[in-house]
């Protein structure tokens, strides 16, 4: 198993410090509770789910606790047998519904385990947790045809009034942007856009002011949009490519260190590598691959 946090390789002194930090607040998680309130877990004989740290007042009767547990677990109070546990060990059988919870000396962190005596309990067999056991409602075609204001009746009415009618198709995001006038103009992609950009030059790529080295210029078969592109090997893994397009290696670079950008988004010049600890906000762009 990979030790992602490097904990196994930590010196003993650091491990002890880490252990102390993690355990520093142990036992204090319930310090904010009222003096007469305890937080206990509730488990059930038939349920996998465990209700964690339900709060009960020490003056609450066992009968009232059963009512609250019924709302959480579904077992009727008359079918509940409550067992108080501590660290997995049985402490007391709480079988007198008239007694208050405090009579059994519970403390926060203990557990109330529910035994279900109902032979027809809905909790048995996973019926309250396994949704695969619930039969799904399925409507027959005959019942659906009897309904009004459905898609099927709408289509029938349209076809009856106009036999040539066809359902409208969903518009793409690009079509909607064109209709609203918010579609950005296509970037130039002619050979003039890569003039002065040569392989080996340092450059900066927009968006994000990402720096790297020009590895390729020209047209690339397989790139959407056609035209001329600039292939860049970035200094940091901020790209979307490894220099390969549809199985053809256009230039060499590690995965996510490469990008293909339009020439208008590439500036060449004195762009040394940035401080690796500096961060820049990135934006996505449709004109980069």
Description:
The protein is an alpha+beta fold and 289 residues long. Among the domains are: 90 residues, Ubiquitin-like (UB roll); 78 residues, Roll (SH3 type barrels). It is 17% helix and 23% strand. The chain is built from five helices and twelve strands. The strands form three sheets. The chain has a five-stranded mixed β-sheet with strand order 2-1-5-3-4, covered by helices on one side. Strands 11-8-7-6-12 form a five-stranded antiparallel β-sheet, with no helix packed on it. Strands 9-10 form a two-stranded antiparallel ribbon. A hairpin with a 6-residue loop joins strand 1 and strand 2. The longest helix has 12 residues. It is flat, with a radius of gyration of 34 Å. The protein starts with 11 loop residues before the first helix and ends in a 21-residue tail after the last strand.
Relevant terms:
SH3 type barrels, alpha+beta, 289 residues, Ubiquitin-like (UB roll)
């Amino acid at each position: 198993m990979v030790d992602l946090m490097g904990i196994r390789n930590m010196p003993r002194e650091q491990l002890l410090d880490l252990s102390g930090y993690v355990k520093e607040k142990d036992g204090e998680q319930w310090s904010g509770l009222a003096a007469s309130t305890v937080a206990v877990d509730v488990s059930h004989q038939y349920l996998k789910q465990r209700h964690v740290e339900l709060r009960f007042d020490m003056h609450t009767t066992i009968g009232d606790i059963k009512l609250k547990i019924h709302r959480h677990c579904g077992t009727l109070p008359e079918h509940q047998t409550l067992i108080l546990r501590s660290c997995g060990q049985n402490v007391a059988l709480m079988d007198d519904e008239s007694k208050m919870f405090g009579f059994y000396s519970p403390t926060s962190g203990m557990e109330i385990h529910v035994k279900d005596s109902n032979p027809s309990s809905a909790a048995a067999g996973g019926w309250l947790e396994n949704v695969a056991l619930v039969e799904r409602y399925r409507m027959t075609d005959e019942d659906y045809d009897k309904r009004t204001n459905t898609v099927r009746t709408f289509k029938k009415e349209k076809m009856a009034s106009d036999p040539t009618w066809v359902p409208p198709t969903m518009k793409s995001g690009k079509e909607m942007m064109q209709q609203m006038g918010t579609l950005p103009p296509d970037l130039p992609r002619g050979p003039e856009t890569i003039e002065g950009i040569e392989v080996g030059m340092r450059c900066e790529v927009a968006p994000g002011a990402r720096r790297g080295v020009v590895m390729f210029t020209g047209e690339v078969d397989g790139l959407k949009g056609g035209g001329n592109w600039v292939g860049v090997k970035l200094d940091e893994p901020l790209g979307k490519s490894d220099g390969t397009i549809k199985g053809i290696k256009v230039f060499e670079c590690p995965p996510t260190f490469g990008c293909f950008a339009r020439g208008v988004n590439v500036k060449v010049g004195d762009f040394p590598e940035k401080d690796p600890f500096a961060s820049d906000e990135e934006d996505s762009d449709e004109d980069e691959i």
